[in-house]
Design a protein that fits this description.
single chain, 428 residues, alpha/beta, Rossmann fold, eight-stranded mixed beta sheet, two-stranded antiparallel ribbon, 13 helices, 13% strand, globular
Length: 428
């Protein structure tokens, strides 16, 4: 237990830190007049979509039917489209110096997505808001493209990938299951405790039974870990909530906001192990990190062959998936906390803004990274992101190159050196 003296010491340290941050903030405001934003790379997760099969599991474990969606599995919904447009309006205002009064002939905007419908549809919803009257289309690259952006590094060591993850859990999948016993118990309650005509109490317990092609067998955590299912079901509830479905349809009325927050902790912790483990993150995000670094360098006026877009582009919208956000976070050791969600959450529409700044007096160029996302309620109620209803914005500290807060800026050279030191190999 903490002693009184230790509590006082911690409190003093926190107060001292807050005071220091206030000084830095005041100093930053005086320096901001000399600051010029040269460009930004926005990398986000797609908007609110219908749940996919892994989040439904062919209804093998839910005692009541899942709520219906108006679009097929995995497809960006109309509600998700509107939420993405509101987010785009915020970006247009935040980066007005880059996006206002542009020429459609040379808008300076580049966009790229994965080949999934939900990422392409998200970009399609946002681009007309970012650049009204301009016909800008997002690019999609296949995994076989010689210059991949979102694809894993070729030739990854499969055994090392497995060992990297197993090494974080003591090589014991049952221990991993035990670590999540409490949230999985709560999830089991949500999935099965019901009554009424639509309640099928014969459904198996997802923690101990595997169902494949309608055939049930004892669950082997090495083959398919039950935490995977718990994390996916939690994501399903989050999607129902952000879609604006009535609360009696979110977890069949058994998942209020407090329970959703608890269950989503299982989701983000699971993705920490599966995506943010260092070697896993290197394999999956080295190409992305390298291209972001090269693009920032090109925006700074340096000839960089690996840069995205064309010379003169200064706003980049990249739309991918929660896995891309998580693995890049693991690779660059980025951490963030949002006021309404779990640690390192990757909600629909949420993601990073890599900003390139230049000091007009000294010419020094720096990189600042922030995580920006609508709150879950802003998505649910389609709240305009203005006035007192701005999105959540979390400045990110980058180990190895960040300076003191509140912006945690890196020098451009420091950022590029840091990226080079963590990626697996130079991209093509």
């Amino acid at each position: 237990m903490f002693s009184l003296n230790r509590i006082l010491l911690v409190a003093t340290a926190v107060l001292g830190s807050l005071a220091t941050q206030a000084v830095h903030a005041a100093a930053a405001q005086t320096v901001n007049n000399d600051d010029e934003l040269q460009g930004v790379i926005v990398l986000i997760r797609h908007g609110v979509r219908a749940p996919i099969e892994t989040e439904i599991r062919s209804s093998a474990y839910n005692a009541q039917p899942w709520p219906a969606w108006s679009v097929p599995q995995g497809v960006l919904s109309e509600h998700g489209t509107k939420a993405a447009q509101l987010l785009a309006e915020y970006y247009r205002n935040r980066y007005s110096s880059l996006l206002q009064n542009i020429s459609c002939e040379h808008p300076g905007i580049y966009s790229e997505t994965t080949t999934a419908q939900r990422t392409m549809a998200t970009a399609k919803a946002m681009l007309p808001v970012l650049a009204p009257k301009c016909n800008i289309e997002a690019r999609q690259r296949k995994a076989t493209d010689p210059n991949p952006l979102f694809s894993p590094v070729a030739g990854a060591d499969r055994q090392k990938l497995q060992d990297a993850t197993l090494g974080r859990i003591g090589q014991q999948w049952p221990w991993f299951v035990n670590a999540f016993a409490e949230p999985m118990e709560e999830m089991h309650h949500v999935m099965t405790v019901c009554s009424g005509k639509d309640c099928d109490t014969s459904k198996p317990d997802f923690r101990t039974v595997m169902v494949h092609n309608g055939v049930a067998s004892p669950r082997d955590p090495k083959v398919e870990n039950p935490v995977t299912l718990g994390a996916d079901f939690a994501e399903h509830f989050l999607l129902d909530y952000t879609e604006g479905k009535p609360m009696e349809q979110v977890g069949w009325g058994r998942v209020d906001r407090a329970r959703l927050n608890r269950l989503m902790q299982m989701n983000t912790l699971y993705h920490d192990f599966m995506g943010r483990t260092p070697y896993v993150a290197q394999v999956n995000s080295s190409n992305t990190a390298a291209r972001i670094s090269d693009t920032l360098s090109a925006m700074a006026g340096k000839s960089t062959p690996g840069a995205l877009g064309a010379p003169g582009d200064h706003f980049f919208l990249l739309v991918a998936h929660d896995g891309n956000i998580a693995t890049l976070g693991g690779l660059l050791r980025m951490e963030w906390l949002l006021p309404d969600q779990s640690f390192n959450a990757t909600p629909p529409g949420g993601g990073y803004a890599f900003e390139l700044h230049r000091n007009k007096t000294t010419g020094a160029q720096t990189v600042r990274v922030v995580f920006i996302t609508q709150t879950l309620d802003q998505m649910r109620f389609l709240t305009p992101l203005q006035g007192n209803d701005l999105p959540s914005i979390a400045p990110i500290f980058l180990p190895g190159c960040s300076g003191p807060g509140p912006d945690y800026a890196c020098t451009l050279d420091g950022f590029r050196q840091m990226v080079s030191s963590v990626i697996l190999a130079p991209h093509n």
